[in-house]
Amino acid sequence: MTSLLASAPTAGFTPASVDYWAIAPMLVVVGGALVGVLVEAFAPRRVRHGIQVAVAVLALVAATAVALLRTVDAQGVTLDGSVAVDGPAIFLQVTLLVMALLGVLLMAERFGGSGADAFTPMGASVPGSPLEDAVAREGWSTSEVFPLTLLSVTGMLMFVSANDLLTMFVGLEVLSLPLYLLCALGRRRRLLSQEAALKYFLLGAFSSAFFLFGAALMYGYAGSVRFDRIAAAIGGADAQTESLLLPAVVLLLVGVLFKVGAVPFHSWTPDVYQGAPTPVTGFMAACTKAAAFGAMLRLVYVGLAADRWDWRWGLIAVAALTMVVGSVLTVVQRDVKRLLAYSSIAHAGFIIVGLLAFDRTAVSGVLVYLVCYGFATLAAFGVVTMVRSGGSEATDLEQWRGLGRRHPAVAATFTVLLLAFAGIPLTSGFTAKFLVFQPAIAHGGRAGAALVVLGVLCSAITAYAYFRIVVRMFFDADGDGERADGPGAVDGATAALPSADAVAAPATVLAPGAGTLLVVVVGLVVTILLGVFPAPLLSAAADSAQFLR
Fold first, then answer.
1. ∠523-526-532 over CA atoms, to 5°?
2. 505 φ, ψ to 5°?
């Protein structure tokens, strides 16, 4: 073996150059994840949770600082061209790190060892009350959630900066595998949580297989998996390989559209959003969608843009179906988390409308939309963790009746977030929708204008669903405990749903800990500021879009 290695030719081997400063945020986060794994293995159980939270927070803060310190001069490609560090990649990496930090703070209390310390019923001064005891039993001490979250964030950072299909696939798997485990960590709704994780895993495995098969076909077409070489090969291949291009593009897009929750690849979204622990749902809804759209931007703008006339109409149909299905099914939901799930599907359709404009202004609009939606979503799920009934989360809409009279501040906060989801002026949602619809009208032709009209109509439909919640919170009398079967029910998981007594009991709001309070306040402030004064974010997104490589 030694002689064989010694005789192997080395003259033609050139080691890949690595710019460690360019990939430093990923290295910091994965380093924090590995430290968390060691803590989970060797630290005493009584101190494990606190150490894990500290490690996760420090890793994300340090990675954010490193990502912000990188300048335009540091942009380019590294790792033999497999990783791109350009404007959109840096913008999305900073966005993902900040949102992941908020997600970790939201998880820190829900996954702590003493739920009673993390949540105290507002107005309850008697220790050991039934509600407090129920919350205490829900304290999970599931400290492995933090290294899993950091590993998923590592995959997200890789996903948005991948410059070839193989690196993108690795990023897709690294971000997905920890999420499958995180979705199964629900203890009070164990059957529902495990069912959601199984559905997510099986459908995610199929989508990954589609993506990998598409990458293989694209390699057969272009002779490379690098985006720049794929773009150069489009239109220049011979007749023998030209037939591989369209199937490859379709399979690649299927793999990415699954992650954004676009129709018809959306079936996992409502079940996973409902079954996963609420902090995990908030983290997934904000960060996974941002990472998936970041990868989709790079795939269709850098690698496949030259062939867009062949597959653009298919993506137009997906955008239209996603908006219609998401908005219509939002109206008929009885569970708050499922309602937010279908709302996220509709938002995915709105973002695809902007993406199809194929213009720099569309890139900046998509970037702004992901920021606006992500912060509002984290705050919304933070509010959902606070609203409880009978010792469990009050996710049934009937339990929210009269909440505005009992807890006006929390109800008002949730109302502002719902207004943002609806795209009402003076909220971040209006800014975001304007910035994706305007390029579609200006550069998308008749199809783009038609999609915008459809998007406005779908926004009005979802607004009805959101205002229905507002009316229940502020204007309806407390529920009488009746509950009819509706779209919010899940077949085969009725044992995991709240009991009739829990549904009958009026929802109360538990005083949040510092982490949950910070997440809700930051999300609310960002939602209002970006609706009133969005200029700094717009400028940063526009500058970043100019450096898309």
1. 145
2. -70, 135
- Percent of the chain at pLDDT above 90? 59
pLDDT of residue 4: 39
pLDDT band at 533 (very low <50, low <70, confident <90, very high): very high
Q: Name the nearest CA neighbour of 481 among 463, 506, 461.
A: 506
Residue showing tokens 């988390």? 337
Place of tokens 């010694």: 6
- Res. 508: pLDDT tops 90: no
List the one residue out of 402, 409, 431 whose CA is nearest residue 419.
Answer: 431
- Res. 403: pLDDT tops 60: yes
What's the rounded Cα separation, in Å, for the pair 495 and 486?
16
How far apart CA 505 and CA 522 sit, in angstroms, is 30
Cα 77 to Cα 80: distance, rounded to the nearest angstrom: 7
Residue owning tokens 């300048």: 71
Q: Distance (Å, rounded) from C-alpha 351 to C-alpha 426?
A: 20
Query: What does the DSSP assignment read for 13-76?
Result: --PPP--TTTTHHHHHHHHHHHHHHHHHHHS-HHHHHHHHHHHHHHHHHHHHHHHHH--GGG-E
User: What is the average pLDDT across 47-68?
Assistant: 93
Going by their DSSP bridges, the two strands 387-389 and 392-393 should be labelled as antiparallel
Q: For residue range 190-211, list pLDDT tens digits in order.
A: 778 888 889 999 999 999 999 9
Evaluate if residue 56 carries a pLDDT over 50: yes
Give the mean pLDDT of 63-76. Answer: 75
Contact 272, 186 (CB under 8 A): no
Return the SS3 of 393.
strand
What pLDDT sits at residue 159?
Answer: 95
Q: Are strands 508-511 and 387-389 parallel, antiparallel or unpaired?
A: antiparallel
286, 303, 191: which is closest to 245 by C-alpha? 303
Taking Cα atoms as reference points, which of 332, 469, 464, 461 lies closest to residue 394? Answer: 469
User: In 223-244, which ranges are continuous DSSP H helix?
Assistant: 227-233, 239-242
Q: Containing H/E element for 287? A: none
Q: Is the pLDDT of residue 93 over 70?
A: yes
Sequence-distant (6+) residues with CB within 8 A of 104 are 53, 56, 57, 60, 146, 149
Q: Can you tell me the distance from the alpha carbon of 147 to that of 143, in angstroms, rounded to the nearest whole number?
A: 8
Residue 514 CB neighbours (<10 A): 11
**Block residue for tokens 């979705």:** 183
Quote the tokens at residue 463.
């607004």
Q: Is 413 in contact with 524 (CB distance < 8 Å)?
A: yes
Tell whether the model's pLDDT for residue 100 goes beyond 90: yes
Of the pLDDT bands very low, low, confident and very high (cuts 50, 70, 90), residue 478 is low
Whole-structure pTM value = 0.88
Instruction: Give the integer Cα–Cα distance in Å for 390 and 251.
Output: 46
